Structure formats: C-alpha cells, structure tokens
Amino acid sequence: MKKATIQLETLVCPSCSQKINNGVKALDGIDKESVNVSFNTSKVKLNFDEEKLSIKEIEYAITRLGYEVIKSQVK
Amino acid sequence: MRRLILRKKNQIALISGILILIAFISKLVFKNEEIFNLALIIASILGISPIAIQGYQALRVKVVSIDILVTIAVVGAFIIKNYEESAIVTFLFLFGSYLEQRTLNKTRSAIKELTKMAPESALKQMENGEFEEVEVDEVDVGDILLVKTGAKVPVDGTVLTGEGHINEASITGESVPVSKKQDSLVYAGTILENGTIQIVANRVGEDTTFGKIIELVEEAQDSKSEVERFIDRFSKYYTPVVLVFAIIVWLISRDIELAITILVLGCPGALVIGVPVSNVAGIGNGARKGVLLKGSEVIHAFSKVDTIVFDKTGTLTIGNPKVADKKYYGNDIDKVLAYLASVEKESDHPLAKAIVEYIGDTKYYTVEETNVVKGGGIIAYVQGHRIVVGNVELMHQENVHLDENAIKDITQFEENGNSLVLTAVDGELKVLMGIRDKIRLGVKENLQKLKALGVKNLLVLSGDNQAIVDLVARELGLTKAYGHMLPEDKQAHIKDLQAKGQIVAFVGDGVNDSPSLALADIGIAMGTGTDVAIETSDIVLMNSDFSRLPYALGLTKATARNMLQNIIIAVGVVFVLLFSLFFSDWMNMSIGMLVHEGSILAVILNGMRLLRYRLK
After folding, report:
1. Which one of B188, B315, B372, B482 has the fewest beta carbons within 10 angstroms of its own beta carbon?
2. Which carries the bigger pLDDT value, residue B370 or residue B464?
3. Nearest C-alpha of chain B: how many angstroms from A30?
C-alpha cells in the first residue's frame, strides 16, 4: 500500500468532493476507507495498491471527472 | 472537447450574457422577435453544455448533482419554448459559480498564505562535498545542508558550523531574531536574517514542527462537526428527492413550468457551502494571528466555555522566579552569601537558581555532606560551618531562633507573595530572601476581557503554596485559587468541574501539564510551538502574548455565530422560495435561480467577514 496526496484545482462545490470520492472509490486497488476528499484544501488523500494501479491511473480518473490535477505525492 | 468546454466555462458565461443582452435590445428597441429568440436559443445551448457535461460526469459515478437538476430544468424550458428562462437560468448559474470561485478563494487565502511559508528548496551537500540546490522533498534525515543569509531553513536540524540570527516568527510568533551557533536547534520555515550556517537534518517534511502546524491547520479547516456531517448526509439524498418530487408534480399537474421551477428552487447550494465557508475563514483568521484552532468541533466547544482553568507558573506568570525582597542579619554578609551561593549552586531547584543568579559573581567554596530535606531545604557544611538553607519549618526543626524582627519581616515578605528562603550559619539566622515570579504583561486586562466575553469562572491550579496562589488570584481578579496541587490533583479537579456540567478549558504551557490539556473539554497550549503541545491540545497559541486568549475566544464565538447565521440564511431562503412558488404568482425559474445564487453568495460574503474579525 502506498499513500498518495493529490492536489487538485480549487474545488468550488461540495458536490464536487462527493463526485471525486465516488469516482476514486470505484477504481480497483484503492483502499476505500482511506479516501478523503477535502473541500477547502482541494486535496485528495488515499491509500492504494501499486500492484493493481498506478498514480497516473488515479490522476486520469479524476481528470475524466472534470477536475485538473496540479500535483501528486506518493509515499 | 469536453475539457475545453469545462475550462472555458467563464468565457461561455460571458458570451451568453452578451447574447442575452443582444436579445433584449433587439426585442425592446428594434421590436425584433426573431433575433430575440435566436440569440436566446444560442445562449441557452452554449450555457447548458458545461453544466450538462458536469451533470453527466457526476451521474457516471452515481451522484445526482445540482447540475443534473439545472440541465433537466433547462431542457424542460426548451420543450415549452420558453427560451428566455432557459438562457437566463444557465447564465445565472454559470456566472454564480464564477463569483463563488472568486469569493471562496478569498476565504481560503489566509491559510494559503501560511502554507506558502513552507520551504521549497535546500542546498544539500553532495557526495563530492559541493552544495547543490535540490527540492526540499529530496532531503533526508542526516543530510548536511547549507543555509545562507535571507534563506528559509528547509528542515528541523542542528547547527554544525557557522553563526547567525534567525527569525522564528513562523513557529513561535515572536519576531525578534534568535541567535544561533554550533549545536543550536533550528526549525523549518524560519528565516536566517544574517550569517551563514551548515546544519544536519533531524526531521524533514511533515515531521518538522512547521510541517505539523500546517497539517494541523489544513486538517482543521476540513474537519467536520456533527451538524455538518448531518448536512452532508442530508444533501446526498436531498437532490434526488427534489428530482422525484418535481416528476410527481409534473405527473399530477401536467404543468412543465411548475415542475422545472421546483427543480431550480430545490438546489441545495447555500446550505452545503455555508458552514465550511465560516469554518475556513475563522480558522484562517486565527492562523494569521498565531491562534491555531483544531477544527469546527473545537470552535463550537470553546465558544460555549463556562470555566477556564489556568496553570500558574509559565502561564499567568513568566515562569522565571527572581529574588524580589531580601533582609540581612548580623555581620560578614559577603561571606554568608558566598556560602549560600556555593550550596545552592549544586541544586537545580528553581528557587536555588534564582538565588545563585541574584548573588552573581562570588567566590565558591567546596561543599561537604550535603543533605537535602524534602519539602524543607538543604543542610550542608562549608569550611566547617553548618549551613541551613530552606523554609521557616526547616528553621524550626533545626532550632534556629527567629527573633521579633525576623518574624515581622517574614510576615511582610509572605504578604508580598514571596516564596521564602532563609539561611542560617551555625544555628544563627543570617539571610532572608523573598522570591517571586513576575506576572505576565497584560494578564489582568485580558482576564477581564474573558469575563466580558461571558466566561463565568476563572480558576488557577498550582503546585505553589496557597498564600502565593491567593495573592496572584487577588491581584488578577480570578474567581478561585487552589495551591498545593499535584498534577493528578489538577486532573481530579477538572473532572469534578465537568461532572457539574461545566464546559472546561485548561490553559497551560504544554510542558508538564499534557494530561490536563487532554482531559479538559478544550486544551489550550500557550507560548510554545512544541510538538507535544501541538498534538495534545485543541487550541495552540503560538506566542506567549496573553492577549491571544481572549482573541481566540472572541473569534470562536464569532465563527460559531457566523455558522448559525449561514444555516438560517440557507434554510430561510428555501422556505421563502417554496412558499412563494405555491402561494404567489411572481415566482418563476429565473427569479428562483437568481435568489438561489444570491443566497450562496450571501453566505460566502458573510463568511468572509470573519477574515476581518478583530476583538473589540
């Protein structure tokens, strides 16, 4: 399991966080419990299994929902 | 294509605004219905495209978002050929979200300023011994770094070589530069004002004190209270329910106009955004003033506080006791003081330190047969003389005679709030010293402010003797004072107060009172940026300036009030809209959208007021 912090463009509507939350959780290899989308900081924090998917795939999924990824950090 | 449309949302809003303007000019000035309709149709189609895309994206992840309601409503308006409404509604929706974005950024600006202070790069020593600039993420514990004048210290570390002055305002709130030399500790985010130093990294990134402060503030602004979690759950079902409700109304009344108006009116905007906006603005204001609030739960609790319990030493007082009064009896005082200093030098008791500091330069003698009497003092031999240093009880035990004058002095010293240290040489009283800890500047005025803000009880719990604590309490106007308190007594006392139904805040310096900080409803650590204080307390006052305490209380009260106002605005608007829809005839889709967007802006602007909050 790796821990990722993804900085997004500024989120404006709280339903955005809900969209991203559901969208990311639908991916295979994400620890659903760990997903946390913060509205005010516009950040997504989550744990994922790097054998099942890469950070690039997570970023792509978020971009496809209509939100730009500014920076992500994996530890 | 999709991404392009989404990215150009603001431009689309502008174009559809212009089209609407053209439409109305052509209708009202040139009486041309065709251009009027054409312009509005184009404006509607342009305007709805980004909204529809967002709605579709949400639906794909099983979220019924507000975009879907608006899309359906606009399509409905199209079907009944009401192009005027479809165009105006999409325009207002897009323009509204543009304004929301602008204003929301403002409310978040205070915290952004703080995070911008985080160091980004470092000069790291490479294998060849040269220093190279690297990203701060690439620095590991044990790396050797070079910090030049004007640069930010990139990590928490220890100075290896060099000297300089560092401004530690970002950690302590204190902007007077601190001198650093070999073996001094330096902290990430502080600024080297002069000199050049080489440091070894002890802690990096999120583990540094500054990293922890930022993490605390970032997490705080998105932490949710019970009310907010309820609103979140509620809004998840609210939007689909509105959709179903509109469909039912349509099926029964066959009135598309009415059904789509319900869709627009039902958008939950202001309710969901109101509380987070107050929260982020309040926490941001605090962060800028060195008051760190750990989230909205803490804001609510502290705004309702009944009792504030203070630790004395280091909180109400500076924590650095000094000899304030003295009396000498008999001759050879210089020699006695030298004996006294020699004995006290071996002790690390705060009173002993104060005495050594007071006596200053003197000759030190060899001390023999030192015997520490617990709760009394020290007995030792210097140059064959028996020296007894301690309190009045110890003098009685040792049969030191205290004459009338001495007793009068002792009473006087005690009334002044001193801790007493008596010194006898060979059974004869020679020196009486009164040692006092200075009260912090401005404590009294600020305690008054706390009372004015509605705090009922101000207590002090201290390990010192009752007379001293009483005196401090009287001088400061505290409600009650308890002396002779061990740490576990303090905890028991706080539990008692809580059992009586009071909301209790504990204010300490975070050094040795962490259990009390954790136990109280609100733990407030003062004057330190230490890790323990940051972790165990709910509110951190980064500077020992006492005025931050009433500021923190005033701010939490204002923030809690602001949240309530926003909830009232949001709920009130929905009621007024629904009421007007069914019981008046002026309500339509455009007005509904206008009021809806207006209420969102109203709560954001209301939240923004908190950024400018000041204690009166």
Report:
1. B372
2. B370
3. 15
